[in-house]
Amino acid sequence: MLTWLEKLVVMQRAGRSVDPSTASLGLDRGIGKPTDYGPVPVCCIGALSIPQRPSMERDRKAEHIELASDRRMRADTSAFDDYSFEHNALPELDFAAIDTSCTFLGKELAAPILISCMTGGTGAAAEINRNLAEAAERCRVAVGVGSQRKALEDPATRSTFAVRERAPSVPILGNLGAVQLNYGYGVAECREAVEMIDADALVLHLNPLQEVLQPEGDRNFAGLLPKIAQVAAELGVPVVAKEVGSGLSESVGIKLVRAGVRILDTAGVGGTSWASIEAARREDAGFDALFKGWGISTPESIVALSHIPGATVIGSGGVRHGVDIAKAIAMGAQLAGLAQPFLAPALVSADAVCERIDRLIEELKIAMLCVGAGDLGALGTTALQRVL
Fold it and tell me: Is residue 32 scored above 80 in pLDDT?
């Protein structure tokens, strides 16, 4: 039997108009009707209704993709809108000569874009990752995979993460939850995750809010810093420390850099809310209301981390378009990470993902022309104004 995600791909390829924000949740079929999982109960969070599998059969990865497709799981506003550039009516630049290239993990990129860690380990995730990786290679941007914990525990799912063949020359980021270092994981497991996909770096994501709200979450975050330091010292590839939607503060960034982590990914408030997603999964609208906007906004996090000597900053969390990318670079980030904007195109094809990347780069270049920045170095020194 096809999963909801596989059915969505089939429907899109057949030319049927599908809104992932409703089709993915089964809302187009009607509440309480039989779902992909058969006649099962429906749980509700506010106006959101989610068909549920019996608890023993629940696929957390599939549910995450399902919920991330819904616009109600995203922040209501973007802190990037609180900042604006001063328009330069005389940029003295040739648009065709504007240079968006940069280097990341020793590899040349066409633009400062990371397709952020998204999925793996379930159903159609293999095709999503393949499309993302192929597009990343063709467009010369970096790409990450979702948490590889599932692949370490269930080798049958490893193929859903296998992307190096599709992206032989661009940076690929592996991914594990840092909290797993308190649950039996160590340098060996981190190295296995890297070797599994021939990754250029390993993301250790920090997600205390998500884990504590997740029905099956791991809640022991005590004593992680020295374990992260050991991984950073012994792994053999760079470690990236990444939040998942609540942002990294300057004080946390300093601790991580002192521990040997040199790349910090903000993943601040403004994009997909994993608090909302986990509240939906546990059927608790109260937690959603309390914690949807918890944390540090992406612009605040970028600026704070940019003050840390030796840190490479990836600005992510609510980055929607090329102007947001330009703002992230001007705030002090070296790259901008996006995930949710690529999900719908990745369900269709690598070509669709490439179209999205090309659009982002064009938007970025237009913004650079209109502020008089001929390259990313110049953009990084361009002032932003706070909108009152």
Answer: no
CA angle 354, 356, 362 (to 5 degrees): 100
Which of 19, 46, 73 lies at the terminal end of a domain, its last residue? 73
- On whether both 160 and 56 belong to a single domain, the answer is no
Tokens representing 253 are 């960034």
Global pTM reads 0.85
What are the tens digits of pLDDT across the range 300-354? 999 999 999 999 999 999 999 999 999 999 999 999 999 999 999 999 999 999 9
- Taking only the tens place, the pLDDT of each residue in 255-274 is 999 999 999 999 999 999 98
Cβ neighbors of 300 (< 8 A, separation 6 or more) are 79, 247, 268
135 alpha-carbon distance from chain centroid: 16
Beta-carbon contacts of 353 under 8 Å, excluding residues fewer than 6 positions away, are 115, 131, 132, 134, 135, 342, 345, 346
Q: How far is CA 69 from CA 31, 86, 150, 345, in A?
A: 18, 34, 21, 12
Total domains present in the chain: 2
Structure tokens at 156: 């049958």
Is 178 in contact with 166 (CB distance < 8 Å)?
no
> Any residues with CB less than 8 A from the CB of 346 and at least 6 apart, and which?
118, 127, 128, 131, 132, 135, 352, 353
Structure-token pair, residue 99: 């240079």
The CATH number given to whatever domain includes residue 320 is 3.20.20.70
Residues 150 and 282 reside in one and the same domain: yes
